Amino acid sequence: MAHGRKKKVHLSKMYSFRRGGFEEDHSQIGGPGFSRVIYCNEDVGSQGMIQNYADNYVRLTKYTPVTFLPKSLFEQFRRVANFYFLVTGILAFTPLAPYSPVSAILPLIIVIGATMVKEGIEDWQRQQQDHEVNNRKVKVHARAGVFETSQWKKLKVGDIVKVEKDEFFPADLLLLSSSYEDAICYVETMNLDGETNLKLKQSLDITSSINEDWMYNNFRATVRCEDPNASLYTFVGTMQVNDQRYALSPQQLLLRDSKLRNTDYIYGAVIFTGHDTKVIQNSTDPPSKRSGIERRMDNIIYFLFFVLFLMAFVGSIYFGIVTNNDLDGDRMKRWYLAPDRSDIFFDPKRAPMAAIYHFLTAVMLYSYLIPISLYVSIEMVKVLQTIFINNDLNMYDEESDKPAHARTSNLTEELGQIDTILSDKTGTLTMNSMEFIKSSIAGTAYGRKVTEVERAMAKKTGSPFRYLEDEKDAFSHLSVKGYNFEDERITNGRWVHEPRSEVIQKFLRLLAICHTAIPDVDEETGKVTYEAESPDEAAFVIAARELGFQFYKRTQTSICFMEFDPKSKKNVERSFELLNVLEFNSTRKRMSVIVRDDEGRLILLSKGADSVMFERLSKNGREFEEKTREHVNEYADAGLRTLILAYRELNENEYQEFNKKFTEAKNSVSAQRDDLISEATDEVEKDLILLGATAVEDKLQKGVPECIDKLAQAGIKIWVLTGDKMETAINIGFACSLLRQGMKQIVITLESPEIVEAEKSGDKNAIAKVSKSSVQKQISSGLAEMKASKSEAYALIIDGKSLAYALNDDIKNEFLELAVGCASVICCRSSPKQKALVTKLVKEGTGKTTLAIGDGANDVGMIQEADIGIGISGVEGMQAVMSSDISIAQFRFLERLLLVHGHWSYRRISSMICYFFYKNIVFGTTIFLYEAYTSFSAQPAYNDWYLSLYNVFFTSLPVIALGVFDQDVSSRFCLKFPLLYQEGVQNTLFRWRRIFSWMVNGLISGIIIFFLCTRALNPESYDKNGKTAGMEIMGATMYTCVVWVVNCQMALAVSYFTLIQHIFIWGGVLLWYLFLLAYGALPASISTTAYNVFVETLAPAPSYWIVTLFVVVATLIPYFSIKAIQVRFFPGYHGMVQWIRHEGQTDDPEYVNMVRQRSIRRTTVGLTARSVARDNNLYNLDRHIER
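User: That's the sequence. What structure does it adopt?
Assistant: Structure tokens below.
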């Protein structure tokens, strides 16, 4: 081949459409879904053609300057707690209020304001991105063949634009021409789907020659096409130029936000603008997900509302009764209220109304039971937790330069409660970096390399495979990405000496020709690299190159490659005419090309899945079928992905007939277009002659077995949902230790003789009936077997056909019961829809938290369906990442994400919420008891501003510090003792029992504080002058005790102190004293009951300090005592791990192993469980733990 400058690629027929006119039925155009008409290069409004299409201004913000205030306020007051505080704030302006209106409204303004500021900042950042995009520049045809620079936002439908190299397309464009003479261009779609390989686009023939600015002066065209939609890979329409119509396809569509590469410039007509473009149509909001803790927190709020209204109701009834009895003739019981001349609030003659008014007042007074700053505090904590996740260097992948990225902050605690992980295989557990490793040609197996699965199987069976490691290293210096093949029989041209060398030649030619890869020749070295649509395809072209069949050039009508000629014993250049490419899709499961060789023969070359290829072989083409099937099964056992290669020769008449039908189908814009294409290709892809099979290895990602081992020890169930063959999936299961020797496999398939017989009959109803019955019987049988033998570990393996019936409404519950009881579940040949349905079944059927993880577009359904979706930012694009809640670069990072960050986040949020309710109940209890003490007269115990600032300043910051920084154990211990994770799975820290225990603790603390303070201060003299304590002294002393108690309680609850926590906890107490000084120094008209109360009364009195110390100690003793007894005499698993840390037993292997062994059970999978199972210890261990 020639070296030097890279040649321009000519590929007008690569996607096999005819660039000419047609006369087919266009009934769809103009009908529903196909009503768009674009007049290209026309002035808007000329000839009466007014187009009411969207402009090109794109706004992805949630708010506008006009809507921010009303919309944001609406969002805030949708929360019942915020709405309640708004109502009480409004009522504070009435005579009913027990406190001043400003003190009631200010905390609400602070809390709502903080949340709105956060929302505003986030939306402003989005607005800045919008501004940058909308003001990008592009050249637009203005008049007389002159292109002027304009902003993206000013583009209109029908404009002609000129986009230059490395620029983004400003809207969805129809490609008219390019700098290449046959009007092709290269497009990078990374912003759309994350794929880095270049896509090739080509214009229609009729416009390909209009490639200069001045030529567009007189250009006019009318495009009729589909309406705006979200489908990135389809486009149907027609273009009318000079009264001739031409069919349009996705090959002419350039999507907004994709980039022009390796092409100097293109001209395009604007088809869709702004929010009509396909990329914006795809940018829908992900499904709204709320954590289980958040939902339970709402229930607690509702419970507290019930308690609040109950307290107000009971107090009002009591108040009404007492008020009614205030006047007994001339005697007044509560003379100090002057009931004989009081207004309606204390008027004995109108006691029912007084009770109703009291109820409204009490509802306002008891509002401090509800933590006003709870929601905003939790939001702040979660945002900070996501920052920790995003900046964790242990989850940063150097190779891809990608850190973990939490795309939402409202699910961090859910990471600590995962019960089941549903994982894709390819690209998630494996690398999706394919290597050509084995092949079967003419019934002979080639390739001596050993796969990772074979090594795992060898270890499983105890086979002596030491030589494999030596072999693995022997050729490491010769490694080529995508190629890991070694067999001296056919490498270095020695294939010519094989008995069936002519078949080998056809096999390797097929690899070099049957693909859609784009060659890239290095100008200096002449080395050829390839841009392929998938890693598999790249591996095939590279393998052909390494074995002597080097594809290096495409032209408009040909494909060129070099091969070794057995006759001349030299490398020769060959050029085959490329006629058609029959593309691969998930329905066809095959791909073919039709070429004319240098001898004039018409040849169809095809490669595809064994499930569709063997049935398409001719009677004379099955010579190697039996051996090939054997090899394919062996390759599947070795965890390899296989494809069948076959060919056939066509006669001229047969090809012409096919080409006419195929071209008509491609140009059709009817609803049956895909069916017509499928019908045309089916007629030619038959009577094939088998050549052999390829096998590529998709290696396990680094650290996958170890990660699965830790997750399994944490008690997390792991399901694999894959589209691969059953044998491949099973062997990958062994390689990553999801399966192990001795684990009983329940395999559900549809390969029984009855089903085979039914399939031969062709009766779809009979097939469905027999298949459903078979699946139901297999599930029932497996369930009975599992229940009968509780000492065994089971694995469930089910194929896609069986899964379709297992997910039926009348079977799915039994299927779920069987699956949940198994240690491992592997679903093979699963479609994207089945993946989503299985995820939904597990989520709704078990009621537990599920996590789905995948890397491709086929995983989007299950990622969005699961409680938490994890996207792997791999090589299959960014669809999974864009749909996910959190993205990571490697599966192994899931270990730290869940066991460390998940455990910490769950524990922090749970403890934080419990503590929030505790401190509010302490405070609310003292208010209620004081009001009862004053015969429910709605008299608050504290000054107005004491009430208002309790939640906002004196007690809120320590809680936030707890939610952000607390660690019960270090990250090293989280990973060393994975069973700690079960705290979250079993929800031990946020179950109703623990929530109520904290509430009871708050109630007891409030009672102790109130009664000790009242008894200590009344009726004894308060100071040396003999004065007794009034309401202002009583309130300030009791408030001081509350602040000390709740902050000291926080200090007792914290497991891991940082400087920030010390500052917030003790700073909260200090802030109270500083506030007393500052507020008391204000004029009496402002400070009211707090005027100089600390300086003149509290601080000089020893009794104040003694009472404070005594009350704080007495209040904390019950909690401290119960906690000490629990930790010392009844430690849970968590307590045992903490004892290891506190008592320095980390180096005591016997004790540490005893604690860690509790992570291994009969149903545990992973490396450790496999090692223990080998020693037959699992069953005995289970019995020991149960005792």
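DSSP finds 41 helices and 35 strands in the chain.
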